[in-house]
Design a protein that fits this description.
With 242 residues, the chain is an alpha/beta fold. It contains eight helices and seven strands; from the N terminus they run βαβαβαβαβαβαααβ. Strand 5 (127-136), helix 5 and strand 6 (175-181) form a beta-alpha-beta unit. Bound molecules: NADP nicotinamide-adenine-dinucleotide phosphate. NADP nicotinamide-adenine-dinucleotide phosphate (NAP) binds at residues 9, 11-15, 33-36, 39, 61-63, 88-91, 111, 136, 138, 181, 183-184, 186-189. Residues 9, 11-15, 33-36, 39, 61-63, 88-91, 111, 136, 138, 181, 183-184, 186-189 line the site of NADP nicotinamide-adenine-dinucleotide phosphate.
């Protein structure tokens, strides 16, 4: 039987790079996304053609509680058992501290923290013993910055969640880890003005953004190495805020 991985936000950026890496390694995939069906379908067809794996797509917005039911129902209807679950999708809100609306603060918390907790609660029985759960955290959850308060705080919460979940997942024989990327060249970063990108590059010791493929191999390592558990693996190219 083929191994199966579910990746939230698996159709672009970091999630897509991880998806490709796992398809190459023989995994069948379930990739969720928010709204860009056309890109999702192109990516799925491309991976299927190149790696011969089954790539299933599911539109499931992580800001909506109904997406938890949707994913759980999909796995149940298709009787899918997972080996790997990757909580990768995340959102931000860059409003100034003085302008943060309660609803926006709540939305970021729901998407980045509540959604993975309650989806995991619903589908934990579908993850095979010996499997693992990986979160995409962020360097911004470790080094406070001044751009998005809710993002930094929720990514810190994601890191804390990983460490706290270890004991809760032990009875299921599941491991849990996070990758905390620094600055990765995805749409998320490419849309920033050139001057801001240069400022960021100057603070990174290797003087460039991370290529998503460089990160993908870290996720694969966390899946394959059974001794990683409760770790937050920072991949920042040697970033220093000052
Ligand atoms: N890029 C960085 O520098 C960086 C650094 C540290 C951590 N991260 C984290 O890495 C993760 C992925 O970021 P990325 O840079 O790879 O992003 P990206 O290139 O913008 O890719 C986003 C992916 O997530 C999906 N997505 C976006 N909003 C969603 C929502 N509300 N519900 C469900 N899916 C959604 C997108 O689907 P659609 O195309 O349909 O919208 C797409 O598949 C996030 O958790 C982010 O916080 C990124």
């Amino acid at each position: 039987m083929n191994k199966v991985a579910l990746i939230t936000g698996g159709t672009k950026g970091i999630g897509k790079a991880v998806a490709e890496c796992l398809a190459q390694a023989g995994y069948d995939l379930i990739l969720t996304y928010s709204s860009d069906t056309r890109t999702a379908e192109t990516v799925a067809a491309d991976f299927h053609r190149r790696y011969g794996k089954q790539i299933r797509l599911l539109q499931a917005d992580i800001t909506q509680a109904s997406s938890i039911d949707r994913i759980a129902q999909f796995l149940s209807e298709q009787n899918i058992r997972l080996n790997t679950l990757i909580f990768n999708a995340g959102i931000t809100c860059r409003d100034a501290f003085e302008n943060i609306a309660f609803a926006d603060w709540e939305r970021v918390f729901f998407a980045n923290v509540h959604f993975p907790v309650f989806l995991l609660q619903r589908i934990i029985g579908r993850i095979q013993a010996g499997g693992s759960v990986i979160f995409t955290g962020s360097l911004m959850g470790i080094e406070p910055h001044s751009v998005s308060l809710s993002y930094g705080v929720t990514k810190s919460a994601v890191h804390a969640l990983v460490k706290n979940l270890v004991k809760f997942l032990e009875p299921y024989q599941l491991r849990v880890n996070a990758v905390a990327p620094g600055f990765v060249d995805t749409e998320w970063q490419k849309n920033k003005p050139a001057e801001i990108r240069r400022n960021i590059e100057n603070k990174i010791a290797v003087k460039r953004f991370c290529d998503p493929d460089e990160l993908a191999s870290v996720y694969k390592m966390l899946i394959e190495n059974n001794y990683f558990n409760g770790e937050i693996v920072v991949v920042s190219g040697g970033y220093a805020y000052k």
